[in-house]
Amino acid sequence: MPARRYQLLLLAAIILGIFYPTIFSEFCCVDDLAMIRHYHHIQSWSLKNIFIPGARGGFYYRPIVTLTFFIDKSLFGLDPSLMHLENVLIHLADAILLYYLTLQIIPREARNSSYVPFVAALCFGLHPLNTESVNWVSGRTDLLAGFFVLSSTLFLIRSHISHRKRYLLLSAVAFFFGMLSKEVAVALFPGLLFVSAAAKKAAREDSAVPLNVPKHRMRSGILLTMGGAIAVTFFFLFRSIALISNTSRIGMTLLFMKTDPGHTLFVFLRAFGFYMKKLFVPYPLNFAILEADPLYELLAIPLVVLCTYIASRRTFQAAFFMTGVFLIIPAFPIAFGQIAWMPYAERYLYLPSAFIMTASVLFLDKILPSSVIGFGKILAIAVLTLMAFATAQRNLTWQTNSSLFEDTIKKSPDSKEARLIYGSLLSDAGDYKKALDQFKKAGSIFTLGYDERADLYIADISFKQGNLEEAIRMDEAVLKKSHGTSSKALENLVRSLEVKLRQGKSRQDKREINKKLSEYNLKLFKINHNPHILYRLGHIAEKLGEKEKALKFYQQALNNLPNDDEYKKYSKTRAVKLIYEIAH
After folding, report:
1. Which pTM was predicted?
2. Which of 99, 40, 91 is nearest to 70 (CA)?
């Protein structure tokens, strides 16, 4: 068989070749663009501000990922191709780590002749589900968490092979860094206990193991438990210092789970059945998975029984399978649809796929008799070829936002979010007819309460087409339906009226438009408290001949605008002028 270095070169060549199109992909309009704008506006950064940014809201604490984005900004100016390339390289690093991890757990005498590490690494590296985490720059959280989770597991196994405590320490540190990359890495902890138990059994069965290993095993078990507990404690300590927890959505979900435990059980079973099926039969690949068939609850029941049996087996196949299951569990509460924008997602299986695919390859290698080894190789090649083809297709789908969301609405036609995003992409491209069709279909999808977005997008198309009266009529309708609380409708009305003002033919027309502008700007200020609106209100009041009112607005703008804002200077100039005119 090829030497190990040639296997690794072939592994790298295949993964880089399949993911090559990713390098030329756009930033995803979901999360990526907002994230890039956020980092562009930050002028300076420090490690302290990244790891302890001061009290702020939210429930994400992922400083390792944040650090990589700041490095991207400093070195590459947040270049999309280079950021996508980084994702691909991290994914490749994860596959290589899995190769070495699998190599450590196969029998010593088989390491020089086994293809199992190569096949396991390729099954993970080419798994179609993992394209979402690799192609989505924001999905780097999964990739980095995978790097540290796999490193932690590898160090743990090395500690049992070498009987050196420093590997246990490295395992705990990598575990801690995994949680700093993505919170769900905390679910690795019980998996590490299973892996440790399997490693102890393997060590006991190894005739070359020294006689004092039982004592070492006891010490290593205690140290592992302590190290994991300390890592988890430090993570939540850092998180509590860094954040003012804003977990209303999580709290709402937990409250619902507590209120109806029976329903919660069925939701969890459905999610478990769905995700386990998805790991082995990933089609259809979809960015917006709205729901899972209730029949998955039935599939989950035998799976739970199977997991119970597997958990009783102290083998590496069982330990890896159970570790993958533990890493799926954090996705269960998300299935209630309160925490994340989609209740189900393929990216949640990035970490589990590494362990469950490896366990599956190890299991098949063990049960296939020597007489069908040739058939097993043909089967492996066929499966890997199918994976590569599906992944290559998916990478091409992810290259542009238009192709991604066109694919998404075909597979999830009831996704309001996907239709709104696709419609806005079509509108930006000037294809107003297709965009209107998407917005109308999005508006017809039922939601609790009034969702103004589809109506606002349709009004915006009327504005772009120069139909000001229709745009104003529709925005006013949105304002009425929202009981006067829609800031976006007010902003659109101000924009449309300012264009109409420039087109006004008579003094009376302009006066009426200015009155409307004053009314809408005042309502808008009461909602968003933007001090620039005060300056605008003063300017309008001057046009209407209301000098005292204009002076009042300019003075309020002076009191609220920052000192370095140019409109503060303008407000002062206008206020001084009006004071003189009113006095004389």
Report:
1. 0.89
2. 40
